[in-house]
Amino acid sequence: VADRPIVLHVEGLAKSFEGLKAVDGISFDLHRGEVLSIIGPNGSGKSTTINLLSGFLKPDAGTIKLEGRSIAGLSAPETSAHGLARTFQNGRVFGSMTVAQNVALGYHKKLTANRPARGLQRIPVLRWIPLLGEAAASLVPWPSVRRENRAVAGHVDAEIERFAERLGPRRDDAAYTLSYANRRRTEIARALVSGPTLLLLDEPTAGMNQSETAEMLHVLQRLKAQGHTILLVEHKIELVTALSDRVLAMDGGRIIAQGDPDEVRRDPQVVEAYLGK
Ligand code: ADP
Ligand code: MG
User: How far is CA 42 from the centre of its chain?
Assistant: First the structure.
């Protein structure tokens, strides 16, 4: 993997909150087709790292390059226009929208980013909808979304098909009727529909039971086999070990170990970091 081109280059990335160094100068590279996982105890800076990479937070210092282009300090819609897609630790879908509509929002971001404005793409608020709270659903121009949905239905259905037996039958149901696991699956489908260069997943199996976690591992293994480049934040060490090419362990905003999954999970500093919490 190491001889493949670098998709993400991070150097000296730092962010403090009122003096607390949440991310304290971290550096790493992510190669095309690689799955890199970040592990670490609660509060070690994993979500902050994802938020910095995806433009939800502005770094105090550091370099972030996506395929050689600097994206540090860009807004979330701008990083998504550059090919980065993410999911959230707590899952964010719009309860009043159907599964298909939620997924379609990810495609609208792509349209907005890559083509001259026309139709739906003229409506800048749509770029923000997936990033905002439930209240934003009232801003969605429904008739245009329904028209546009027909155009993007093929792409939407292809992503829903990844979770076929789970999401397929729920395609046209409002997301508020979904189980927690299905809401997480919907969110991942939305991130993928834009065909991202880099996928950031923040604890995709949080709150899932054992069989749901095993299913998610299966989906992620297929994504990896298809060549997706993935940065994964995850607590479940078996999943991390099964999936990752490399693992970074964080503690107190710093990278305390990195390398092969089995090496990192046995690293004395890593064991200590978990035991110490
Ligand atoms: P992790 O995802 O590894 O559990 P986080 O990145 O969420 O950790 O948090 C790292 C540290 O930064 C924690 O001490 C957390 O309380 C703090 N933190 C995270 N986000 C904020 C914020 N928006 N404002 C203040 N402190 C924050
Ligand atoms: Mg977190």
Answer: 18
- pLDDT 10s digits, 103-131: 888 876 655 554 444 444 445 555 555 55
CA-closest residue to ligand 1 atom 27: 17
Span(s) in the chain for CATH 3.40.50.300: 1-75+198-277
Tell whether the model's pLDDT for residue 41 goes beyond 60: yes
- From the list 195, 188, 221, 228, the residue with the least C-alpha distance to 31 is 228
Mutate to test the pocket of ligand 1, among 17, 233, 277 (most ligand atoms within 8 A of CB): 17
% of the chain exceeding 70 in pLDDT: 83
Evaluate: CB of 19 within 6 angstroms of ligand 1: no
Q: Whose CA is nearest to atom 25 of ligand 1?
A: 17
Could you name the CATH architecture of 1-75+198-277? 3-Layer(aba) Sandwich (3.40)
**Closest-lying ligand to the alpha carbon of 42?**
1
CA trace torsion 3, 241, 213, 30 (10° rounding): -30
DSSP-assigned beta bridge partners for residue 246: 36
**Is the CB of 252 inside a 6 Å radius of any atom of ligand 1?**
no
**52 in Cβ contact with 13 (< 8 Å):** yes
Whether 192 has a pLDDT exceeding 60, the answer reads: yes
Mean pLDDT of 63-68: 96
Among protein residues, the one with the nearest Cα to ligand 1's atom 21 is: 17
